[in-house]
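seq as requested:
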Amino acid sequence: MRNVLYVGMDVHKETITIACASDGEEIRVVGTIANTSASLDAMVRKLVSGGKRPLFVYEAGAGGYVIYRHLRELGYTCMVAAPSLIPRKSGVRVRTDRRDAIMLTRLYRAGELTGITVPDADDEAMRDLYRARGDAKKMGKIIKQQLLGFLLRLGVVYGKTHWTKMHYRWLDGLSLPHPAQQLAFQEYLDAIRQSESRVARIEGMLHTCVQTWKRQEEVRRLQSLRGVSFITAVGLLAELGDVRRFKSARQLMAYAGLVPSEDTSGNSVRRGRITKTGNAHVRWMLIESAWSYRLKARKSRVLLQRLAQVDAKTAELSWKAQVRLCGRYQRLLHRGKPRGKIITCIARELAGFIWALAIMEPAAASAGLESGPLSAAA
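struct tokens:
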């Protein structure tokens, strides 16, 4: 492997610090370059001029996968290392760009780094659009809390459920004593409506983009599960990417951080809280979807509409999941288990059914089904 050059890169917004070494050689710092494609190309030409094949690695961060995709386009191997799985010495108290680049090079050469699965451009684009919707929802929630707090300070309280049609009609007819307060109130109310309009607009974009997305069929199948709406199905697949990369359902459960932590030594077995590793967005969506299984198993009107657009095998697995998960919730509740733990258990098993549906081979051409548009969930 002496013809291989291991290259560790400590990447920041404006600079990249590079270190490299071959097997049996001392690691040397090449230098610091600007974080631009031109500077990176010049550095790559310098590294390959010695006749060795470079293998690049850098730590995943806010910079995304621009460098990874650029190097892959040039024909080079590049790993994006998972930050949480990088071995670090607890006694080290000094960190610099040079030291980080040397550390990455040393660990990469030793095979101690774990790479993440880099999503392809289409999946990342859908993920960005889905997360934009989530950001819009969060902003709307914040503004709603600010408006309610503003009215509470003035002693104006609506005694029923908030943000219904009746509540909005009550807000539209509200008159405050001072003109300045009325102006502030109207600004809050307009901001809420703008936020809701933004969410609806992004959801419409998601419906449009899914029609040309390669995971359209998987989105359709996942919607056959109770508690998995169109938005949830798109979000799960955008965050997970190719679900087939998980060799088993247990791997998906572990990736979502829904498996219990464990500290086993000798004959002593200790299991604790869930690990909460991996993708937090996936874990949150699974937990939210799991709450629907606290109710009795049934096929609602909305669910029947979704089932009409999938094949019989998918519909059968969907009903099997609902019977199992609803029954499991009731059994665990009868045993006195806390609701939070029960929902976590249901979410873990729901991940297994999602894995089974996602890896299912596409149904035979049409198979008597109408290829209508994907149904939006209520």
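The CA atoms of residues 211 and 373 lie 8 Å apart.
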